[in-house]
């Protein structure tokens, strides 16, 4: 691995450290040391591989010893929270549910690791795994940032984990060519690729690299919403247009009528009137709302809160329930939990 080259076009990486209660990845210590000398934000992960229904603590202790020996503390600049990988295991060439997997083991592992490193671990899994192997009971992962896998789905995001919520990291492919990863005949090899839901400032804060108080930089978080799309972001655009005096039907469909309204808004704001809602248009379109506010902008906020797993009735009234949901979302995104939906909170909401 040429980690310096990998760091040129990537922001973060996760490295496998351990599996079960005995296995250590033979490259982990060397790679972690090398990665730590680059700009890459990084964290180790443990593949949960139970051999009995009571080895959760043993697996946690094995992981903690291994990563500490490699220099990981969880609090150094550039270090992301440690990761627990919970998925199918291979038996005789087939992926199967771990027979000895129990929710109690996972709870023990996560609490032990959290206590050791004084940081909330990340959980890597899939909604399908939770449904198939844990009877849909994902409550064991509630309160932990989720790293979910869904490949080959284009813009379709991973399904939320039952009882735990939506993703913070999304592993969207296992076969993207990454310069710095060795491939055949001196070509770039393939690797898993992931995206973080949030701003670069928020990711850096998670990695002990500074505050999230600065506004998101244009292009780092705002999505691009185009004609032809159907989504909650389209509904949000439509409701915000109405709040800005360009009444638009909030049907979630970016059709000709919405295009015309977007262009009219862009023209009034002296922006390029292309009908596409990108970073510049978003930054003019969103409006700060807080306790006591009423109207379509509040309704847009409530739709986005629900889409992010913080379910709330979209009644257009910013009451105590909405304030509570906003604070919970801000806390989960490592923003200042003041209950006020300003630009940074809007950016985090729509950048799912």
How would you briefly describe this protein structure?
The protein is of the alpha/beta class and 352 residues long. It is 35% helix and 16% strand.
Question: How many H/I helical runs?
Answer: 12
From N to C, what is the helix and strand string?
HEEHEHEEEHEHEEEHHHHHHH
- Placed side by side, the strands forming the largest sheet appear as 2-1-3-4-7-8-9-10
Give the helix proportion (percent range).
25-40%
Extended strand count? 10
Low-confidence stretches: 211-220
What coarse outline follows from CA principal-axis ratios? globular
- Overall mean pLDDT stands at 91
Q: Which structural class best describes the helix and strand composition?
A: alpha/beta
Radius of gyration computed on alpha carbons: 22 Å
Amino- and carboxy-terminal Cα gap? 31 Å
Summarize the structure in words.
The chain is of the alpha/beta class and 352 residues long. The protein has twelve helices and ten strands. It has helices at 3-8, 28-35, 56-69, 103-117, 127-133, 200-206, 232-243, 256-268, 279-285, 296-307, 320-332, 343-350; strands at residues 12-19, 23-24, 41-47, 83-85, 89-91, 94-96, 122-125, 146-149, 169-182, 188-196. The strands form two sheets. An eight-stranded mixed beta sheet has the order 2-1-3-4-7-8-9-10. Strands 5-6 form a two-stranded antiparallel ribbon. β5 (89-91) and β6 form a beta hairpin. α3 packs parallel to α4 and α7 runs antiparallel to α10. The longest helix has 15 residues, at 103-117. The radius of gyration is 22 Å and the shape is globular. The two termini are 31 Å apart. Residues 211-220 have low confidence and may be disordered.
């Amino acid at each position: 691995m040429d980690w310096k080259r990998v760091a040129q076009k990537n922001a973060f990486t996760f490295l496998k450290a351990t599996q079960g209660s005995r296995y250590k990845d033979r490259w982990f210590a060397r790679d972690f040391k090398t990665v730590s000398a680059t700009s890459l934000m990084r964290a180790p992960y443990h593949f949960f591989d139970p051999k009995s229904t009571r080895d959760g603590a043993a697996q946690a202790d094995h992981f903690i010893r291994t990563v500490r020996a490699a220099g990981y503390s969880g609090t150094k600049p550039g270090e992301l929270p440690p990761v627990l990988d919970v998925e199918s295991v291979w038996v005789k060439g087939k992926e199967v549910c771990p027979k000895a997997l129990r929710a109690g083991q996972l709870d023990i592992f996560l609490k032990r690791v959290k206590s050791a490193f004084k940081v909330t671990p990340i959980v890597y899994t899939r909604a399908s795994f939770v449904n198939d192997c844990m009877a849909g009971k994902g409550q064991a992962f509630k309160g932990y940032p989720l790293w979910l896998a869904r490949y080959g789905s284009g813009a379709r995001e991973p399904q939320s984990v039952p009882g735990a919520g939506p993703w913070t990291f999304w592993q969207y492919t296992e076969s993207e060519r990454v310069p710095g990863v060795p491939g055949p005949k001196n070509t770039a090899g393939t690797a898993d690729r992931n995206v973080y839901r949030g701003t670069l400032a928020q990711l850096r804060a998670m990695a002990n690299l500074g505050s999230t108080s600065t506004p998101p930089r244009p292009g780092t978080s705002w999505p691009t919403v185009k004609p032809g799309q159907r989504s909650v972001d389209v509904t949000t655009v439509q409701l915000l247009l109405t709040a800005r005096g360009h009444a638009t039907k909030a049907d979630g469909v970016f059709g000709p009528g919405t295009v015309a309204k977007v262009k009219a808004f862009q023209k009034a704001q002296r922006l390029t009137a292309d009908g596409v809602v990108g970073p510049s248009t978003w930054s003019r379109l969103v409006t700060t709302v807080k306790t006591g506010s009423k109207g379509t902008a509040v309704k847009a906020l409530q739709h986005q809160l629900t889409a992010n797993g913080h379910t709330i009735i979209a009644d257009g009234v910013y009451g105590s329930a909405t304030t509570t949901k906003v604070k919970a979302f801000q806390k989960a995104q490592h923003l200042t939990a003041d209950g006020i939906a300003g630009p940074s909170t809007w950016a985090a909401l729509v950048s799912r």
